[in-house]
TrEMBL record:
Keywords: Membrane, Transmembrane, Transmembrane helix. The keyword Transmembrane helix applies. This is YxeA family protein. The chain crosses the membrane at residues 6-22. The keyword Nuclease does not apply. NCBIfam families: yxeA_fam. InterPro entries: DUF1093 (IPR006542), YxeA-like_sf (IPR036166). It comes from Paenibacillus sp. SYP-B3998.
């Protein structure tokens, strides 16, 4: 009886741990490399859902820099227009952006920041 209670308790703990993990971790960021970009004008695009409803999204093609300052061109979409000149951390898997989030300038690594500031001033 004691072994059954322990086994059930361990099972419940595993399920709760998994649920907390799924709630707090963006799976699209797992295994992705962080790069940093500064937002410029996005290209407004239109698409249609499977039911024929129209929707608007924005496409961004930007030069991204990793923490070592290495450059990589990235293209990604957002369902809203992003704040112009905002800094983003984009998560790149291969050649695709899997996720992004806005970051403050002081969160951008030094080498990426130098490259972003020099590319935005030219």
């Amino acid at each position: 009886m004691k072994k059954v209670i322990i086994a059930v308790s361990v099972g419940i703990a595993i399920v709760i741990g998994f649920l907390v993990f799924m709630q707090n971790v963006n799976i699209n960021r797992l295994g992705a490399e962080p790069y940093y970009v500064q937002v410029n004008e996005g290209k407004k695009m239109e698409g249609k859902t499977g039911t024929g409803e129209k929707y608007v999204y924005y496409e961004y093609t930007l030069q991204a820099f990793d923490k070592k300052g290495q450059e990589k061109p990235v293209t990604f979409t957002a369902n809203k227009q992003l704040r112009k000149e905002a800094f983003l951390c984009v998560f790149v898997k291969g050649d695709k952006v899997s996720s992004y989030q806005e970051v403050a300038l002081n969160e951008v690594p030094v080498k990426a920041k130098v490259n972003l500031q020099s590319s935005s001033s030219s």
